[in-house]
Design brief:
The protein is an alpha+beta fold. The protein is about 10% helix and about 20% strand. The strands form 2 sheets. It has a two-stranded antiparallel sheet with strand order 1-4.
């Protein structure tokens, strides 16, 4: 569930999702395009199940890319939507 503090639209208005509007998979996974990740941490903060962290290693540009450090991704896509550099793809599975 997304906390009330994060349910704000771009213009400051409240956002409300109808029943079934947020697709949650039984299992999800992310792919981070490390060459685009700038370690801003917005995706880490947006993840409702807290499975992302900033890596200890650095990419070619000297940034520490985000990584999925534990199981439990629900494939909600909040991380990808929050990424200003489109560095994350989300995959959902019903298996």
């Amino acid at each position: 569930m997304v906390p009330a503090s994060r349910r704000r639209g771009m213009n400051g208005s409240d956002l409300f999702c109808g029943r079934g509007a947020l697709v949650v998979a039984k299992k999800g996974r992310i792919v981070v395009f490390e060459k685009f990740c700038k370690s801003c941490g917005l995706c880490v903060a947006a993840c409702p199940v807290k499975v992302l962290q900033i890596s200890e290693r650095t990419n070619a540009k000297g940034y520490r890319p985000v990584e999925q450090f534990k199981e439990g991704c629900i494939g909600c896509g909040m991380c990808a939507m929050s990424c200003p550099d489109a560095a994350i793809e989300v995959y959902r599975s019903e298996d």
